[in-house]
Amino acid sequence: MTTAAQPTQGTWQNVGTRRDIFKDIEIYEIELKRWLNGEVPDALFTEFRLRHGVYGQRQEGVQMIRIKLPLGMISVKQMHALADLSEELADSVSHITTRQDIQYHNVDIRNTPELMRRLAEVGITTAEACGNVVRNVCACTKTGVCSSELFDVTPDSLAMAEFLLKHPEAQDFGRKFKVSYSGCAGEMCGLANMHDIGAIAQIQEVDGKPVKGFKVLIGGGLGAVPRQARVLYDFVSREDMFIISQAIARIFTRHGERRNRSKARFKFVVDKFGIEETRRMLEEERAKIPEDEQRNSILNDYLNYSEEPLKDPSSLDVSAQSEAFQRWYRHNVEPQNQEGYSIAHVFLPLGDISGIHLRELAEISEKYVKDSVRLSVEQNIVFRWISNADLPAFYEDLKTLDLHDVANTLGDITACPGTDSCKLGISASRGLAATLHDQFRTEMKELGDNNSMKIKISGCPNSCGQHHIADLGFFGSAQSKGGKTAPVFQMVLGGTTQGNAESYGLAVGKISPHNIPEAIQRLNQFYLNTKEGEETFTGFVERIGKKRVKAELADLMSLPTFDERPDFFTDLRRVEAFQVNTGKGECAGELLPRTEFLLEECDRQNAQATLFLEDARVQEAYDLAKSSMEKSAKALLLTQGYEEFGDYETTNEFKKKFVDTSVFFSKYAAYFFKAAEEAFESMDEVNVRYTVEQATLFVEEANVVYSKIAQQAHASAGLTAVS
To answer: Stretch 123-148: mean pLDDT, rounded?
Structure first.
């Protein structure tokens, strides 16, 4: 039997001594005191604290703290420490992220040095968990025990995480940088296509011998306008991955955008130069890099990695177990490559786990698998090396904690924090996810058990909830009608996690969160009634077209007036009237109904542009996308007293009134200005797709800005009436 091992030396768990993060914490504490005393400007301290994993929340006076757990690996000792810290210094909840990390919320910044020290004592750092640096290195939770992988990428991932942590040539990026490893190409694994560096395991024959290495993809990313990664090399040896990453870091540092953050990710460097020139630059840079003993030896420190099971292998007659267990087994359990053992997924609604439950899961881990536990990009916890005969007892232990719900189903929803804590949140992504989860446990239980579709939700267009790679993706926005503002979500179709996120979806139209449960039921039934054979939902959408899918939901995509449905103007799981609180708005005196009409027309144009793109009607898609941006700008200028067909230059006036005053998000405004200078003749099909995606974001931001203007105007009108 092949096993994989807990290394006793040189592991990431010992990063506190290998990188002297205690000294880093001392420096952080000194700088924190200086900032509290007013000796350090806010802007300087912000970048400093971000590099130590301290992130400002939506709420004043508290912080979000993110830790770094490469590959999501977590030990029993660490689980106990994290549980204690969540209760003592945070809000008693550990939130698992889509990068296999953990976040604490509502932490007093004065308590952050103590939190960092206690994490360091169990081998956890917060260093570079946020900021313009290399973020947590991800890898498939099944690597080492998966039957479809070529080899275990755990040693490579851990070595890369250590190599890039605080690397001197990875400290001066314009934006964040993300790395992921996959053991195979066919499954979702490490989602290599959406990373700055995505490595997919390969074995190539060299001099008659098999050599392990990686297919290397670069320049991927989600964000507001996503990019598919491009193939840099079909094969790179395991050892050469480190010098390749160092050369890429140099290129990103030298050529990455500095002033315009919307263009500062590495994907835009690859866009600018193209893959061939980027490869040439990399080879040139690689030749200049001097020899480095650590780079050449770091992989060797991890090659003896293995995980040893706590118990001997065993068998289980699943058919002899209860129906409840069999349901859980179907969805949550996968056989390992090693006979007699299984992987079990523990579903965490919203990715949250209380201190009490995390502590009890640590005890369950000790009982069945020792330290063979990892966090997943689906925001769940994965137990490895469970001896098959122990699965019924393992299930019963989970049942006592009410953590026995099914995973890997439609009801296993990924969601970002949204308006609960993020400053950029527009709509309540967690409110929608929680509502759907409750319904999937009750009246929609049969639908919730569907394991062929995935839902992912973001509170804004930035895709922290990874809505671009979901079968059904949603991102938060706002829409005004009759002077009242309602929360809405853009529905995104055509994405998938399979094949390392081989395709991204496109927005097809807005829908109220109150209508989304019914929309999901309709789409699922439509899919089941119309699919061909074993066709996936994404394949089904591609075959019949987004236009046909959207037609099934036409009545649900129409926002009623406030008088018709006042509840639609309150977000899910909220009692207060909906408001957009992403920044300062600009008050207008009298609102013009024409603005709402124009913005609705822009929404329609964007949806139609997506359908044209799907039908390969590229120029028509481009023309509509460009038109929707110009009309959105005109719609906002109406609120400032401009006439729709007045004699003025739209881009200049829009810039003066909304961009220079910081009312309109400059990142999305740049899309409009860029489109205004371009012509279709200079665009290829890929760039037209980007223009369509950019237009969607521009129009969404126009709706958000208008909603804030409407809110403020009505508030002012109310005050005037009272006075």
So the answer is: 93
Q: How far apart are CA 602 and CA 521, in angstroms?
A: 28
CA 296 to chain CA centroid, Å, is 32
Average pLDDT in the chain: 88
Tell me the H-state helices in 495-545.
498-501, 516-530, 537-544
Contacts (Cβ under 8 Å, ≥6 apart) of 629:
602, 671, 672, 675, 694, 695, 698, 699
Predicted confidence at residue 225, as pLDDT, reads 79
**26 has pLDDT over 60:** yes
* Secondary structure of 375-414 as H, E, C letters: ECCCCCEEEEEEEHHHHHHHHHHHHHCCCCCCCCCCCCCE
- The whole-number pLDDT of residue 21 equals 81
Fold of 138-301: Sulfite Reductase Hemoprotein; domain 1 (3.30.413)
CB-based contacts of 439: which residues, under 8 Å, 6+ apart? 448, 517
Query: What's the farthest any 2 CA atoms get from each other in the chain?
Result: 88
What is 409-582's CATH number, 3.30.413.10, 3.10.180.10, 3.40.50.1970, 3.40.50.300?
A: 3.30.413.10
pLDDT of the residue at 532: 92
Give phi and psi for 396, each to the nearest 5.
Answer: -65, -35
Closest C-alpha among 311, 303, 302 to residue 342: 311
Average pLDDT over residues 136-141: 95
Q: What are phi and psi of 181, to 5 degrees?
A: -120, 140
Is it true that domain 584-723 has CATH number 1.20.1270?
A: no
Per-residue pLDDT tens digits for 590-634: 334 568 778 877 887 888 888 888 888 999 999 999 999 999 999
pLDDT attached to residue 512: 95
722 pLDDT above the threshold of 80: no
CA separation for the pair 20, 5 (Å, rounded): 25
Quick one: which H or E segment has residue 368?
helix 355-368
DSSP state, 132? S
Contact 193, 222 (CB under 8 A): no
- Helices within 71-171 (DSSP H only): 76-89, 112-120, 154-164
The CATH architecture that domain 12-120 belongs to is Alpha-Beta Complex (3.90)
Q: Is the CA virtual torsion 438, 442, 444, 445 positive or negative? A: positive
